[in-house]
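User: Second chain of the day. Same drill as before.
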Amino acid sequence: MLDENNGNIRLPIEMIQILDKGVNGKNIDEKVRLSLAIGMFVDQTVTLERAAELAGKPLANFIDILRNKKIDWMHYTAEHIEEDAKAIQKYKENTE
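Assistant: Same format as last time:
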């Protein structure tokens, strides 16, 4: 359930305990944020670029995370492809 005053989400203690065990140096917020962003991308709710932003990761790092999890990051709508092509071009221009 969303707490409208500050954007916090309440989770059952069982979920928090599981998340806390698998953190590996990350805080729970980062892990949940990444998991939700991946889920939204897989569900085609957001584009690749937007998912990376929501996860708080650079696009290249987010793609690496998807690859490591064996998630097909190139299988989505034509609209997503167009938007992400623009994002990748912008990324290339900023790194050259």
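The chain is about 60% helix and 0% strand.

User: Great, on to the next one.
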